[in-house]
Structures are given as C-alpha cells and as structure tokens.
Amino acid sequence: MVRQKEVQRFVDYINLYIQWYPTRNVFIPMGGDFQYEAAEKNYINMDRFINSQPALKLKTDDFFPYSSDALSFWTGYFTSRPNSKRFERIGHNILQKRLERIHPIQFLSSKAPLTSPTTSTVREIETIPSSRSGPPEKDKKPIPVQPLPKAPQFLDAAEWNVLKDGLPIMNPIELLTRLLSGEKYLTMSLIVPLVTKQLVASNGVNESDNENNVNSLRYLREIMGIMQHHDAITGTEKQHVANDYVRLLTRGIEYAEKPTGEIIRNLLQTSISEKLDINLELSSCLLSNISICHISQNSDKFIVTVYNPLAWPVTHYVRLPVNNKKFDIQGPDGQETYDIVDTISDFAFAAVPNEVPSKQELVFAAKEVPPMGIKLYYVNQVNSLSEESVEPSLVKEDLQFGNDQTNFQIDGETNLLKSVKINGIKLDITQNFYFYYGATGDADKTHVASGAYLFRPTQTTPESFINGVLNTGIVKGEHVEEFHQKWSDNIVDISQIIRVYKSKEIISKFTVSNFDNKGVFYTDANGREMIKRTLNLRPDYTYNSILQPVASNYYPITSKIIIKDEDKDLELAVHRRLMKDDNKGVGENLNETEFDTGVYVRGSHYLLFGSSTKINSDGKSTAAQERILAQKKLNQPWIGIGDATSDALAYDQIKSKLNFKYSALLEALPENINILSFEPWTNNTYLLRFEHIMEKNDDPDLSKPATLDIDV
C-alpha cells in the first residue's frame, strides 16, 4: 500500500511544478539518463497506472513546437544539416529495398480484414513453388521438405554455417525439392524467403564470400541505427561528428551494394540450370546530385537496373549525368525514347578528384516497373550530339509547360511561377525564395541566438532574393518540360527547376491567390496520420505569439503539409547557416562548408492539389493521391548502374542470358495496401506485415477495410 506521506510529497511537487507552465496538460519527467535499469518492472507499473484511469481523455495531437522559454523555440533542428537528413533517407531506401530471392507470390481476395492502423501477422511458410521450370502436374506431388534445422544435407557448408549460428541476418536459401522419379524437371522451393531488408547472395559463392556479404549488410544496419541518434537525425552534432556520420554511412552503402549485381543477375537469368559467366557489378551513383557518375559519364555502354520495392507497379523517370552524348536504350519493351536536358547547375565548385561534373542529364521513363520487381536497360552510346545547350535568358512573355490537364505557367515579366493546373483544376500560385537573418544573441535568455536547435529570426517578414540576378532557361523534351531559374548575388546562389512530366535561413514560399484556410493547415506524423495545426494557436493553453511569431509556427514535415480550401502562404525551410551557437549543447555554430564554400543543398518539393470532395480523373481522391505519392517518394526505386564495355557484357550476351524484367509478385496489391516488412522470424516462420496506408476519410473506396489472402 502506498504511504500517504509519499503521496502528499508527490502532490506538493506537482502543485509547485505546474506554476512553471501555461499548459493545462503538464508533462512530468521522472528520472533521467542512467536512472532506470529494470525496464520490465517500470513499464508494467506505467501500464497499471494508465489502465487505472480509463476516464482520462486521449490527447490526439502532439507537443510541437517545443519551447524552453518565451524566446527559445526548438524548431531550428527541423532543418539543420538538410543534406545529412536526406543522406539518411537514401541509406534507409537502400537498406529497405527488398531484392527478395523469392519465387512469385500470388495475393488473392481474402478473408482476413486489413484496416488502419497497421496490422501485423506472422505466418509459417514452408515452400513457395517456382514457375520458372513450369508448374508441377496436379497429380504429382513434391516430396515434403524436412524442417530447416534437420536438413543441413541440402545446404552447402557456407549456407549452413550462416543458419546454424542463429545470425539475425540470414541468406535466402533455395532448396531443391526432388519430385517423384520420372519427372522431367525440378522445382525450386523457398525456405528462407528474405534476407532482412537486403538480399545477400548465397548461390555460387564460397564460405568467405558469403560471410563478407552477411557482414556488409550488418554494417549498414548498424550505421543506420547510429543515424537514428537524436543528435544525428536532427543535425545537432558537432561538425566533425557529422563528417564521421557521412563517412560511415557512405562506407555502409558501398559494402551493402557489393553483392547486388550478382543478386540481380541470378534473379534475371533465363536458365536456372546454367552457370552464368556474366559478372554484373552495380552501384548507385551517390554523387549524381552534383552531376557526377563515373560510369554514365565515361562508359560507351552501361547497364541500368531499376528496382521497385513497392507492392504495385511504379513509373519512374531515370536521370543520369552524361557528357552531352546520344544513346540507344534497349529495355524490356524494346527501344526507349529519352531526353538530354541541362543540369540544375554547372557545379563548378565541386572539386572532386578525377571527376568533372556533367552539364547534361539523360532522362528516360522506366514505365510500369513491376511490384517488388526489376527492369533492366542496356544503354549504348551512338555518337555525340552537336554542342548545343539551353542558354539562360530572360523570357518576355507568359509561357506554359505541360498539357491541358497538368501544366504550369511562368510570368513573362517576373520570370516567376504564375499558375499551376493539376487534376484539371487551375490555381494562381506564386513561389519564391526568401531568407531570415538569424539572431546572434548571447547566453542571456533575453538575447537568444539562432542555432542548431533554436530558430530565432530577427524579423517577422522574410526578405526576398528578388534583388539578385535571375537567369532562366527552357527545356521542352519528349518526356519532360522544364523551366530553369537561377538567382545569384555576392552571398547566395539558388537554382531551381520547375518540372512537369508528360504523364541564410533560406525558405521556399508558396502563395495561393483567392484562397483562405483561416490559418489552418495539416502536417504528417511520420508519414502516418495528419495532425491539424492552427496559426498562433495551441490546443492545450492560451498562447501569445507576439514574442516569436515566426519560429512558434514552424512544425516538422517528414512527408507532407496540406492547406485546405475555403492564409494564403506556405513557408518551407530548406537550408540554414549560422554564425553563433544557441548554447543548447552543441558548443559550436552551425556553419557547414565544403570545397571551401558554404555547403550546397539539393532537394525537391512535389506540389499536388485538387478537390477535397470530388474524385479525380484517375478514380482516386486527392488525399489518396497524396498518400500514394508519399509512398513513392519514401520507397522510391533503386537505380543500379554498371559498366558494360567488356565482351561478356555485350548486348547480345545480356539479351540471350538475362530477362529484362522480373517480379516477386504474380499480382500487384491494391494501392491502399503496402508490404511494410517481410523477413525471417523464428524456425521456419516469417514476419510478413501489411499496412493500410489510408486514413478513414481519405477516399470513399480506398479507405475501406481491405482483405487479401496469400496463395503459397
């Protein structure tokens, strides 16, 4: 029984504590770092406390934005070190790509409902028959496969050593299931369907190679774990630590990608009985964001593989730096068309040893890449184009890019965005770049500096770069139409491409005319539900925004921000460079440099709008389009590039020995269902998790509970 004296001490503490906060709901911290060691006991006690108060109201919003005093809003770290934040997402994408060495799975109509939130299920899968060698006759049955722990005779030494040690990262092992005598073919059956997040090849490698593959994947997993540290993902570490994070993650990605070429080769091979002499080495071009990719720039012939990790088909536009060349591109559907366009910048500042940034990009469409599948493209340089490029110039009249249903207009007087038309709906939208001067301050709370944690601008209205020189360029190709903008002065260089496909504390600001949302907007909670935000309002207490009207209205956006019809501006922070520390723990100012200049940041914003009540021409609501687009952005296809100048990788050799398309699924899932994870669990069981990605009222059809069954 709790002693009354301790209860009274706690009550007295709360009565004192609440005097420091204006909120009606008060967060009570208990303990601190290194205070608790018996986690199970403490969580049980917390659960008992929570369950003892069923009448307590549920808080459905969050606590953002945080502030530690009237001037100190912790909203700067939402944007600090944006390149590091993006690099972490690239690492996530590479780690999560499901290059399963599995045979096709068919998803049918089902009996098990799947509703939001995420439903998890663990199923035991003994074999997944292959259709590569032809389906078994109905009256012929395979001999049952022994349980995995009792079947080392089916594995080679390297494979068994991986499994018997109980490593958390397993190879996808295929076992031969021998049919009854007299059969004309063998059926391959799956025992371990997925290496955790990244396929590690097991066929045709010796023990040391196999161990290296497992270790390479483990290394990337560990580095990605480090990148989730609260000072790594937020950008609130010292500069030398940030540099080390980049070094570690780069190495992790390079290690994890080493077996990828062999894996894709094995998945695409036309004959499973033939030992291939094709050595396919693939990697992603991590420097393509500054128009450097050694293979695409310097190889006369190269292979491009596009892997789609989603459970439905995706069309993805491949963009690769090239040196003003003309190409012949052969894909699964024959010869592909392409565009050669100017890059967003000449990247002259990028002093990378032995590399020169390209001024041109090759653009082609990888159409309908199959679900959890691959498309291969063979790119062959034909001859050089004439030395023609788009020269930057100011336009003198309004220009339109796109088609009747999806387009944007550029104002001929200002060279800025004038209007956008999406889903057949046209809105007058302007967009420009602005900046805030960050407060320099000191340790005194009345003179707080803007720093890695804190965002504290010195003014309430941002300043425009409009006084700088604005140069423009126009690209109109077969696949893409672009309008290039470049602002430059003595301090800042900003380049932007507004693109439409035919299918300081720097901010980007969108202004919509004749639009009034009463200060209400919505941001996502880690890509899941949308949380309602209201300008200068807090749900839990009366808030005075006079002291910090800008910083106090900044919120984190990990996926999307929405304003609904019926304030006109959306303001998105994209970069920060500060000369003072905010004295919140970093101990140095946020001043990132590279190549002896301030670090450049490159990113993208996707603009989508439409009716909140009507269904669009593709049969989906605007909210459903947003959800699907967010998934495509988070789990975008992985592009692998490989040199193909050797005789063994000649087009005729590749065409005769490899299929140009592969899918792990016989049938795509509906677009409201995502395969969240698919990985080994315990003793012949596998964790297969699906998620329903729609909220209740997103779409009249796609928001309904979904059902599916797995035919294995």
TrEMBL record:
Cofactor(s) this protein cannot do without: Zn(2+)
Annotated Polar residues bias: 113-133
This protein's GO CC annotations: lysosome
Stretches assigned to the Glycoside hydrolase family 38 central domain: 72-249
Keyword Hydrolase (UniProt): yes
GO molecular function: alpha-mannosidase activity; carbohydrate binding; metal ion binding
Pfam families for the chain: Alpha-mann_mid, Glyco_hydro_38C
Region (Disordered): 113-144
GO biological process, one term: mannose metabolic process
Coiled-coil residues: none
Keyword Disulfide bond: yes
Keyword terms, alphabetized: Disulfide bond, Glycosidase, Hydrolase, Metal-binding, Zinc
SMART domains tied to this protein: Alpha-mann_mid
Protein family (similarity comment): Belongs to the glycosyl hydrolase 38 family.
Protein name: Glycoside hydrolase family 38 central domain-containing protein
Organism of this sequence: Rhamnusium bicolor
